Amino acid sequence: MSRSFRRAVLELLDAMDGDRLIEDMCRHRSYWVWVGEFLHPHEYATRYPKAARAFQVVRKKAPDGTPAPDFETWHAKLEKSINLKDADATLKVLTERPGELARRLDHLLRLTDNEAVRSRVVAAFDAKVTAFATPVLLTLAAHLPKRQATTGVRVYWP
Q1: Is 151's pLDDT higher than 80?
Q2: 62 forms bridges with which residues in the sheet?
Q3: Alpha helix stretches (DSSP H) within 15-133
Q4: What pTM was computed for the model?
Q5: Is the pLDDT of residue 147 over 90?
Q6: pLDDT tens-digit readout, 41-65
Q7: Rounded Cα distance, 112 and 7, in Å
Q8: Is residue 20 domain-resident?
Q9: What is the spatial distance between Cα 157 and Cα 43, in angstroms, rounded to a whole number?
Q10: Gap between the Cα atoms of 138 and 143, Å rounded
Q11: In terms of domains, do 51 and 105 share one?
Q12: Which residues neighbour 84 within 8 Å (Cβ) at sequence distance 6 or greater?
């Protein structure tokens, strides 16, 4: 690969959001490690810092062999806020991805008894409703009216 081509690819990668770039690269880690062998991102680390950091995280180490910088995925942030039962932090994370907000609406409403927080959740849901997929909205329409109803006992055999 020519240097100009490598710089062009690194420039495109560096123009992306750093955290989302790393998450996407981690989904196909082996391919990106392989691509990094040809791009040599550490040679352009000062010019394209986001791309260089992404390749360090994907490789799990820096070019000098030191451990890669820490990285927390979007799902890790979400699970951490849910485990802390922090509805505001969970809402903040979920508003970044409207589909996940819709899918986890019931769970988010159950995280708190505070009416002010619940009204913020409903307002956030209302603000993003045009971004939701129709099947998700239909599922919510069927589920939410029945969420407090008790159901019969179900037994599952191994």
Answers
A1: no
A2: none
A3: 18-27, 29-39, 49-59, 74-83, 87-94, 98-103, 105-110, 115-128
A4: 0.71
A5: no
A6: 999 999 999 999 999 999 998 888 8
A7: 49
A8: yes
A9: 59
A10: 9
A11: no
A12: none
